[in-house]
Specification:
Strand content: 15-25%
CATH topology of one domain: Rossmann fold
Shape: globular
Distance between the termini: 26 Å
Order of helices and strands: HHEHEHEEHEHHEHHE
Largest sheet: 7 strands, mixed
Structural class: alpha/beta
Helix content: 25-40%
CATH class of one domain: Alpha Beta
Number of strands: 7
Number of helices: 9
Radius of gyration: 19 Å
CATH superfamily of one domain: Vaccinia Virus protein VP39
Length: 280
């Protein structure tokens, strides 16, 4: 099967305007990355769940720095990674020289020809995309003999330090009239919409691992980000919320640099799209 990219696309990283994730590129893997063994297992589970064969194309939206994508690019047959952030893709390029990468906005037309992609993969980015547009483009680019949408997300023990601090942070934002974006709700809405059109979803617990985390590390991570809870937040408001969160953490956890152990899970939602796509 020919490459899915249009004639004017290439393996280089095209230039677009800077994006909010640009400043996070150098530290993104350290803050949010998976252990290497977990990332490799997630890629293996994607291949197994979608029965990828040689020549099948995988399109990853929000490819980022390539922690999973580099393994899909090496093993999946054919791979195209798309991200709006050029610095993120530059990091990806350094770790996977032969990966096909294109800087593009997944909320616009995808740089892919009709009817040629077996798997569309998104890891922790569904909440950033328009649900209707994603479903339409999936219907356009998906193989006519059937395709898959695979959504990936990290699930944390709700009693863990980071989960409890995130919940408290969202409460502090809500008190100031700033609702956080819910990745889980966005994913569930998309999956329900596709299921209503005849798609068949199922969940796969792809990888589990143990982490040691501190309240201080979570605070540093959020202070480095351009916003909070997936929202643009004024600098003063962000400082106020995180200062309040630091006080809350000290009250509930004691020493901010004390380590706490927790389990994390990378969950895949695998949606089998019927032959003919998802178009109404």
């Amino acid at each position: 099967m020919p490459a899915p990219m249009p004639a004017d696309a290439n393996n280089d990283v095209d230039r677009l305007e800077p994006f909010g994730f640009d400043a996070q590129a150098s530290s993104f893997g350290e803050r949010t990355g998976l252990p290497p063994a977990a990332a490799a297992e997630v890629a293996r589970q994607i291949r197994a769940a979608t029965d990828l064969r040689g020549g099948d194309w995988v399109l990853e939206l929000g490819a980022g720095t390539g922690e999973i994508g580099e393994r899909l690019a090496g093993d999946a047959g054919e791979y195209l990674g798309v991200d709006l952030s050029r610095p993120m893709l530059v990091v990806f390029r350094a770790r996977a020289r032969r990966a096909r990468l294109v800087q593009a906005d997944a909320n616009a037309d995808w740089p892919v020809a009709d009817g040629c992609v077996r798997v569309v993969f998104l890891a922790r980015t569904a909440h950033l995309l328009d649900e209707g547009h994603l479903a339409r483009e999936l219907g356009r680019v998906g193989r006519r003999d059937g395709a898959y949408l695979v959504l990936g997300a990290v699930r944390r023990d709700p009693t863990s330090v980071r989960a409890r601090m995130r919940a408290s942070m969202r409460e502090l934002l809500a008190e100031r009239g700033i609702p956080g974006r819910s990745g889980r709700a966005s994913k569930e809405g998309l999956v329900e919409a596709l299921a209503a059109r005849g798609a068949a979803p199922r969940s796969v617990a792809a990888a589990r691992w143990r982490v040691r985390e501190t309240p201080a590390a979570s605070l540093r991570s959020w202070r480095q980000k351009p916003g909070l809870a997936g929202r643009d937040v004024a600098v003063e408001t962000k400082r106020e919320v995180l200062d309040a969160l630091e006080g809350w953490a000290a009250e509930h956890f004691g020493a901010l640099d004390a380590e706490h152990e927790a389990e994390e899970l990378f969950e895949l939602t695998v949606v089998r799209v019927p032959a003919g796509g998802t178009r109404a």
